[in-house]
Specification:
It is a single chain. With 316 residues, the chain is of the alpha/beta class. The chain folds into two domains: 231 residues, Rossmann fold (3-Layer(aba) Sandwich); 74 residues, no CATH class. Helix content is 38%, strand content 18%. The chain contains twelve helices and ten strands.
Length: 316
């Protein structure tokens, strides 16, 4: 097993509004041959980057070690696992093109994917992720030419996933008055992992990806808490339980794996159940598993999805 680090100077990210680096590192883990192999694009959750999947964790396996073990056990064969750094000043990524934060979808699909497909002679490509990464995998996987998709606890049904957070973050956001000022304050803190700060930062990040203009438009008024209906409608248009309807024909023939904990901390089991029901109604074959657990510390589920992706990509 080998790890190669690439650096892509992205034209799509060069002039992003937050001046985040446009030189993006990508780690590619290969288990054996680098010719005519399946590839898997891994998208990280919020407040993370895919590169952290290579870090040592004394209580769990890194994704690199997990892939190595599955390969040694002969549960998977030769493949390329692609881990791009897509971290932003707003704490994470939803893998969309956004005027307010940057063209990350275009970076991935128009620069990164063509480069690695050619370099590693990838014959079939899958995409996987958890949480925000699961959202990204579902968004990109239902829109582009991926042969297989694996989503873990994907952001879906925004009424349950996000709406409960709004009243919790209003007081925190009111301390600074504007999203930009809050971001500056956040990065100045030494204890920035506090739950109130993280929740508020995530809502700002989601606002940048989901709101319709080049400004970071919050979906509620800071003074009263009233929902800003036009902005909220735009958020909902980007909810998988809404956008998948118009993409259902693109999902046919793809291998799709979905799982979620039955006690997810963000109530994501409901949105994923809805997606499962939609796929059943459309008679689109897929695997859906609901396990006993919450949102955190569920990387052991990758044992299932990585084998699923490899087996289905190898057969394409």
């Amino acid at each position: 097993m080998e790890i190669e680090y690439l650096e892509i100077e992205s034209d799509y990210l060069r002039d992003n509004p937050w001046k985040d680096t446009y030189k993006r590192k990508v780690a590619v883990v290969t288990t054996g041959s680098t010719e005519d192999i399946p590839g898997i694009l891994y998208l990280s959750g919020y407040f993370s980057t895919s590169l952290t999947q290579l870090n040592l964790d004394p209580l769990s396996e890194s994704l690199k070690d997990r892939v190595g073990r599955l390969y040694a056990e002969r549960n998977i064969g030769d493949l390329a696992l692609i881990l791009p750094d897509t971290f932003t000043s707003l704490g994470g990524n939803q893998y969309l093109d956004s005027k307010a934060i940057g063209l990350y979808e275009s970076f991935l699909m128009k620069e990164l994917v063509p480069l690695v497909r050619e370099k590693y002679q990838i014959t079939s490509l899958g995409v996987m992720g958890k949480s925000s990464g699961g959202y990204g995998a579902l968004h990109l996987g239902s829109k582009y030419d991926f042969q297989a998709i694996a989503i873990h606890s994907a952001d879906a049904y925004f009424e349950y996933a996000y709406l409960p957070l709004f009243p919790r973050v209003i007081q925190t956001l009111r301390r600074t008055g504007t999203p930009k000022d809050f971001v500056s304050m956040f990065w100045a803190q030494q204890d920035r992992k506090r739950r109130d700060l993280l929740d508020a930062m995530m809502i700002i990040g989601l606002s940048a990806f989901y709101s319709p203009t080049e400004n970071v438009e919050l979906p509620f008024e800071l003074e009263t808490g009233r929902i800003r209906e036009e902005v909220w409608r735009h958020w909902l248009s980007l909810d998988p339980v809404r956008f998948l309807e118009e993409r259902k024909e693109k999902l046919r023939g793809k291998s799709i794996y979905i799982d979620v904990g039955d006690r997810d901390d963000f109530h994501l089991q409901y949105g994923n159940r809805i997606i499962h029901e939609m796929l059943n109604n459309w008679k689109i074959a897929h695997v859906y598993e609901e396990f006993h657990g919450g949102h955190m510390n569920t990387s052991y589920r990758y044992d299932v999805s990585l084998v699923y992706l490899y087996e289905n990509l190898k057969a394409k």
